[in-house]
Design a protein that fits this description.
The protein is an alpha/beta fold. Helices cover about 35% and strands about 20% of the residues. It is built from 7 helices and 13 strands. The protein has a 10-stranded mixed sheet with strand order 6-5-4-7-8-9-10-11-12-13.
Length: about 325
């Protein structure tokens, strides 16, 4: 019996269990190599080819630019620009702008850089990209400024300001009256970002989001502690915001307006106030217009009438009071 089993095992050509496991591992490895190769091929098709194409395109543009520059230097008569196409305009007239930059019948050749410089000199144009379509044709892609506010220095005409705080053009006509007005001490610089204007635009956006219109913000002046100050439609009083987050201060103002309806006596008294001070947390300080009964000889210029506060008590200042604050003996507090 034992001999028969030995002869049978010697003549059996079927693979053993170990041989089957080894063959299975080799098949798995072969499949893994094929999967990795396929993944590399897909990555090359999706990423490598587009990158290679973009690199070749940029390289071709650079070489074409150099060839065009050398050709223009050798034969300037062949590169006289006769056509200029302007894209990206919204407020500006592209045809009129092209005629202004490239007068008809101009005999001299002009470089794309010079066209870009002429376009950027326009107050409404923020950025320009110029490319040559043909030896005698250029295309310019412009980006216009988007007005976000007006800025006015005392005694000066207002100018338009974009969302980055860059003053770029005169605010002529009544078209821009709905934009917030930022009042500053000195004329803002043109074509350069002004951090004060950028801060004012952010503050004006917060005031507009709170539902107020015809916004006027005083950003700098003699008393920096009482700035910024706000005027809005429907509230005759000057609203002192001061430094810091405007959201809780505007919320206090909204609560004050809700508790004093315009038709009631308290609302009419609120409309007679000269100033609403929101600089103190949880408190609103109201300062009325000076009354003729104050003082022995009539009202003193710049004097305050008795004022009132709402909410918690105001913090005392270690360095004294500002003009008009509610620590004077004749002022009182409400509730």
């Amino acid at each position: 019996m034992i001999g028969w089993l030995r002869r049978r095992n010697r003549d059996d050509l079927r693979p053993t269990y170990a041989e089957r496991q080894a063959a299975l591992e080799r098949a798995r490895e072969r499949l893994h190599r094929q999967a990795r190769s396929e993944a590399r091929r897909r990555t090359w098709v999706k990423v490598g080819l587009p990158l290679l194409g973009a690199f070749a395109f940029v390289l071709g543009l650079a070489l074409a630019d150099r060839v065009a520059a050398r050709s223009a230097a050798a034969r300037p008569d062949l590169f006289v620009v006769e056509r200029l196409e302007i894209e990206g305009t919204r407020r500006l007239d592209a045809a009129a702008l092209a005629r202004a930059v490239l007068p008809e019948g101009a005999p001299d050749p002009i470089a794309p850089e010079e066209v870009a410089a002429r376009l950027e000199a326009h107050p409404w144009i923020a950025r320009v990209a110029v490319a040559r379509l043909a030896p005698d044709a250029l295309v310019a892609r412009v980006e216009e400024h988007e007005p976000a506010a007006r800025a006015r220095a005392i005694g000066e005409a207002p100018v338009l300001v974009n969302a980055s705080g860059v003053a770029f053009a005169d605010a002529e006509g009544s078209e821009w009256d709905a934009l917030p007005l930022l009042v500053v001490a000195d004329p803002p610089p043109r074509d350069r970002r002004d951090p004060l204007l950028a801060q004012g635009i952010g503050l004006a956006r917060a005031v507009a989001d709170a539902g107020y219109t015809h916004i006027e913000l005083s950003l700098d002046g003699e008393d920096p502690n009482a700035l910024p100050a706000l005027r809005v439609d429907g509230i005759p009083a000057r609203i002192v915001l001061g430094a810091g987050d405007p959201a809780p201060k505007l919320a206090n103002l909204a609560r004050l307006l809700r508790t004093r309806p315009p038709d009631g006596p308290e609302g009419q008294a609120l409309r007679a106030m000269r100033e609403i001070d929101l600089r103190f947390a949880e408190q609103v300080v109201l300062r009325p217009v000076a009354s003729p009964e104050l003082g022995n000889g009539g009202p003193t210029p710049g004097a305050d009438a008795p004022g009132s506060t709402t909410g918690v008590g105001a913090p005392r200042r270690a360095t004294g009071d500002r003009h008009g604050e509610s620590r004077r003996p004749h002022e009182h507090k409400e509730g």
